[in-house]
Amino acid sequence: MLGKLTLVGAGPGDPELITLKGVKALQQADVVLYDALANEELLKYAPHAEKIFVGKRKGIHKFIQEKIHELIITHTTKGKHVVRLKGGDPFIFGRGAEELKYVLDKGIEFDIVSGVTSVIAAPASFGISLTQRGVNESFRVITGTTSEVELSEDIEAAASSKVTIVVLMGMSKLEKIVNAFLAHGKTEIPVAIIENGTWDKEQLAIGKINTILEIINQKGLKNPSMIVIGETVKESKVLYEYLLNKKGLKL
């Protein structure tokens, strides 16, 4: 008898931000395959499950994607309930659909448990809103680095618009992103860099397009970080100043 796969979004890092449905899936798991961005504290909800780390980070690959597929099939064909625990929401640059299509092709049953995405939760942790009435009419989420390890062409399109943009996996391309905005004369656009958003070790840097590179060099922020560019960053100043003080952090 075949087992099944449950794809679970682990949330942005704070272990309390996983959903109740996600916790229930972990409690019922026989095997948990978890990523680098999934907080390991969540594994306590699966005390009897086998836990296998399958995380990938830029330049460091514990498992290639094909190996992860193989592990899912190996355990589900033994009748086990496999939970694939992925940071944030697995359908936001998380390759969740890719993994589900693979198991569907193999005739494996699956369920999906959405997660709180870091796209919204990490800025919100510092009171930074991605939309504000009278300030912007939309926001855009972009990967800074494509599968070909190049800067996304969407950065150029966003730089010529008025939308607030959130860039994931973009720290290694930050200079190129800045240059794209400078090329459109947008030197004063506010920028927020959030490192480890919602985790205990989270950090925030605030600047403008023409100052953010220097600020990041001074603070030493690095991956995993996200970049928020837009006027809503400036409009959120009173909130992030209050929350920084509350968290005992400084800009």
In short:
Helices cover 31% and strands 22% of the residues. With 251 residues, the chain is an alpha/beta fold.
Keywords:
single chain, 251 residues, alpha/beta, 5-stranded parallel beta sheet, 5-stranded mixed beta sheet, 31% helix, elongated
Shape: elongated
Topology order in helix (H) and strand (E) letters: EHEEEEHEHEHEHEHEEHEHH
Instruction: Describe the strand arrangement of the main beta sheet, using strand numbers.
Output: 3-2-6-1-7
Mean of pLDDT: 94
Low-pLDDT sequence parts: none
The quaternary structure here is single chain
Tell me the structural class. Answer: alpha/beta
Q: What is the count of helical runs? A: 9
What fraction strand?
15-25%
> Largest sheet, described in full?
5 strands, parallel
Q: How helical, in percent, are the residues?
A: 25-40%
What is the radius of gyration?
19 Å
Distance between the termini: 56 Å
How would you describe what is shown here?
It is a single chain. The protein has 251 residues and is an alpha/beta fold. It has 9 helices and 12 strands. It has helices at 20-27, 65-76, 96-105, 118-125, 154-159, 174-182, 212-219, 231-235, 237-247, and strands at residues 4-9, 31-34, 50-53, 56-57, 60-61, 81-86, 109-113, 139-143, 164-168, 190-195, 203-208, 225-229. β10 (190-195) and β11 form a beta hairpin. 41% of the residues are buried. The mean pLDDT is 94.
How do the strands and helices of this protein lay out in sequence?
Blueprint: E1 4-9, H1 20-27, E2 31-34, E3 50-53, E4 56-57, E5 60-61, H2 65-76, E6 81-86, H3 96-105, E7 109-113, H4 118-125, E8 139-143, H5 154-159, E9 164-168, H6 174-182, E10 190-195, E11 203-208, H7 212-219, E12 225-229, H8 231-235, H9 237-247
Parallel strand pairs: 1-6, 1-7, 2-3, 2-6, 8-9
Antiparallel strand pairs: 4-5, 9-12, 10-11, 10-12
